[in-house]
Design a protein that fits this description.
Layout: E1 26-35, E2 38-47, E3 50-56, E4 59-66, H1 71-81, E5 91-96, H2 101-104, E6 108-113, H3 121-131, H4 139-147, E7 159-160, H5 161-173, H6 176-181, E8 185-191, E9 196-202, H7 205-218, E10 227-231, H8 237-245, E11 250-253, H9 259-267, E12 271-277, E13 280-285, E14 290-291
Parallel strand pairs: 3-6, 7-14, 10-11, 11-12
Antiparallel strand pairs: 1-2, 3-4, 5-6, 8-9, 8-10, 12-13
Helix pairs in contact: 1-7, 7-8, 8-9
Length: 293
């Protein structure tokens, strides 16, 4: 994926984005398990949760609680889906901040943007204080999406129902950390044939989506005109919003969408599917993209 570079550099050039050496996505703890009157003391795995601070240059932009791992993808996806950048080339450099690494435990990512891409930090501070990486709620959110002049997703994309029905099992089979903790959300990209392209896990569903979209952005695969996004939790507004920014024509979830998510998907002509379980699903928007064999 991304070549590993020396850990001595403060900022890695964009073409040499470095993955974290240690992800700390799991923690081990002692627990007492009660089972039908018997108590068993054992070790158990927990999904790790730590804050990640995203900086632009030396200026702090946002802090989000996340599961450590794939932090650079998370930062890139966040910058992209929240509208700070519109293309990969605007990121000059991206890496973990290694100054004061003992203090911040690697929980700081620093991005260097092109000079013409520097945001209005006062405006951004107000936005992300309210949003906390989840998107602003309500009418302001939809207005902000409209203001970005986003194109409706690929209208020619079609997905076979049998392919769609196979996706949840593929998602579950690939959730390595969830299988050991039961405590993480997952987001995954699939192609039109149902082949898994990428899967990312995180304690926050919006973070998992940002990691997936960040991967695609850094791999020059955006817009994702011919892909499907599947999320393990509900299909909330922030998921649909981020998927529209990435150009995804189909978003599916194993649980229910929110009313605002449905409203936005219908307005942007995106296909939104909920309750994808077994051999059943509900289409809330964009029925024309789903085809029976």
């Amino acid at each position: 994926m991304y070549p590993v570079t020396s850990t001595q550099s403060t900022i890695a050039p964009l073409g040499e984005i470095r993955l974290a050496q240690k992800t700390r996505s799991l923690d081990l703890t002692q627990v007492a398990e009660w089972d039908n009157g018997k108590v068993l003391r054992k070790e158990d795995y927990l999904a790790a949760e730590e804050p990640l601070e995203i900086r632009i240059g030396d200026k702090p932009l946002s802090v989000t609680m996340r599961t450590p791992g794939d932090d650079l993808e998370l930062a890139a996806g966040f910058l992209f889906t929240e509208g700070l950048i519109i293309q990969r080339s605007q990121i000059v450099a991206l890496d973990h901040e290694i100054e004061n690494v003992e203090k911040n435990r690697g929980n700081v990512v620093r991005a260097v943007l092109r000079p013409d891409s520097e945001p209005d930090f006062e405006k951004m501070r107000r936005h992300f204080f309210a949003a906390s990486s989840c998107g602003i709620c309500g009418k302001a959110s939809i207005d902000s999406v409209r203001a970005r002049s986003l194109e409706p997703p690929n209208s020619d994309f079609r997905l076979d129902t049998e392919v769609l029905l196979r996706l949840p099992e593929s998602l579950r089979a690939s959730q390595a950390v969830f299988g050991r903790t039961g405590g993480l959300h997952a987001a995954a990209l699939f192609d039109v044939k149902g082949e898994l392209l990428i899967l990312r896990e995180d304690i926050g569903r919006h973070n998992a989506v940002d990691k997936v979209i960040g991967w695609a952005l850094l791999a020059d695969r955006v817009p994702l005109r011919d892909s499907v996004l599947l999320v393990s939790g509900r299909g909330g507004f922030e998921i649909v919003q981020k998927a529209i920014v990435a150009g995804l024509p189909v978003v599916a979830s194993v649980s229910a969408p929110s009313s605002l998510a449905v409203q936005l998907a219908r307005e942007m002509r995106q296909t939104l599917i909920g309750f994808l379980r077994g051999r059943r699903f509900v289409i809330y928007a964009g029925e024309e993209r789903i085809q029976s064999p």
